[in-house]
Amino acid sequence: MRGLRGKRVLVTGGASGIGAATAARFLEEGASVCVIDRSADARERIGKELPGLSGVLDADVADRDAVEAAFATAVQHMGAVDVLINNAGISIRHAFVDITPEEWDDVLAVNLTGVFHVAQTAARRMLKQGGGVILNTASTNGTHGYPHYADYNATKAGVIALTKSMALELAPTVRVNAISPGYCLTPMQRAEYTDEMLQRVNNKIPLGRHAKPEEIAALFAFLASEDAAFASGHVYVMDGAETAGGLASQR
Question: What mean pLDDT do residues 163-172 have?
Fold first, then answer.
C-alpha cells in the first residue's frame, strides 16, 4: 500500500485475532507498530511472534487513565501515532433475558466506552500534529439482528454511529472509518462455537467460510494508506456476502 512505510501505528486488542493479524500486516508494510492488550498471556505471546513490534503495552481500554498512559508510552516508543486501529473488544454469548447488569456494563465498557476513550485520546493528538487516521472495528452485528449477542450488537451499533460523527467533526485533518467484519475465525469466535455451530454458520455464508483475520487486516492497511486518501466517514463490510441478500440469501 502507498504511504504506510514509516507510519507509526497503534493497535488496541493487538495481541490476538484481528488485532494481531493487523499488527503483523503493518509491520510487513514497513510501519512502526505498538500494540495494547489487557491479557498478559496474549502480550507475552505476541511479543515472541512479532519481535519487530516497537512496544507491547498493558492497558484496559475501559480505564481512561490506563489508556492515556499507554498512549503516552506508545508516543515515547514511536515519536507519534499516525494511525490508530481501535480494535479491542469482548463478547459473551448468552440469551438476552440472561444478561446480567454486570455483564452488560463490562461489554459496553470495553466495546463502546473503550473505543471512545482511545479514539478521543488519539484525535486530540492527531489534530495537534496536523493529521492522522482512526479506524474502528465495528461488526455486521451493529446493523443486523443476531440472537444471543444483544449487548455486543448494541455496542457495535454505537461504534458505527460514533465513527460517522467523528469523521464529520475531525475532517479534514483526521480521516475516520470503520470495518464491519462478518464471521471471522478468531480465538474469541472459536471459543464460543462448537464445530457443528461453525459449520452451520459457514453454510449460510455465500463464500462458504469464515473470514481469516489476515483478510480483515488487509482492509485496515488499505484504509490507512494513501490509496484511501479520500475515504472517510464510512463503514466497510467484509462478510463474504452474508448480509447482501437478507432472507433471500439464507441457505
Answer: 98
